[in-house]
Each structure stands twice: as C-alpha cells, then as structure tokens.
Amino acid sequence: MHIKHWKKIASIASFGVHFYLWETGSFTALTLNEIHDLSNNLFSISATLIGFIFAVIAILVTITENPLIKKMRKNGMYSEIIDHLGYLIAGFSITMLLSYISLLFSGEYLHYLLICTSFIFMYSMIMLITDMFRRLKLTFRNLK
Length: 144
Hints:
- With 144 residues, the chain is mostly helical.
- The protein has 5 helices and no strands.
- Helix content is 83%, strand content 0%.
- The chain starts with 5 loop residues before the first helix and ends with a helix.
C-alpha cells in the first residue's frame, strides 16, 4: 500500500472504532473513576512514547557522520523522518494535554473529552506503527 494513504486509513479506522464505541454506549457508560483511570493511562502511555520518540531523534542527530545518515540527508529522507516524528510528538502531546484536563474536571461533558482524547491517541498510534515503520523500512531499503 502506498505510504500516502496511511493518514486516511488511520483517520477512518480511528473514527470507525470510536463511532462504534459511542453508538454502543461504551463511552457513556463509564463512571467518573473509570474515565479518570483511562485518562491517566493515556497520559502515561503518551508521555512514555514521547520519550522514546525523543530518544530516536537524539540517536539520529548524534550519528550524523554515519554514511547512511549522510545519504539520507542528501536524499531528503532524513528530514522527512524527523518531520513525521515531530508530528507524532504533537499528537501524543495533545493526548497528554487532553488527558490532563480530563483528570482535573468532572461533569457530563467529560465523555466527549475522553472520546476526542482516545481518537487522537489511536490515530497517533496507528501512524506510529504503520506510517513511521513503513518510512523507515523504505528509507533503509533504498539506501543500499
């Protein structure tokens, strides 16, 4: 599958899952404590993933003298990978922010905040697993 389709696929998959969960009442049936537990988990997982992404960026930045990295910079693949890692950091940061906000409040609108947070998290996870893996795989395959 072409790499440009992953954003659409991630959006459709995330929307489909969350629409189904909303229609079946899975989100609206959650208690305040369950929402806070889910938000806390989303916050922790997102923070951990941001740390790993920063570690990947740090590794890529520190091995600039490697012949493969020089070739990646010359072909423009290096900046594309760094840009997409930045998008992932933004997605997980938004997830962290929304999760933190939902931990501070209670009320009937908290279910909406949880579904938005979960949607962004799932989209970012799909992009991390599929799009970034595919980009790295194609990059290293083309550097032979």
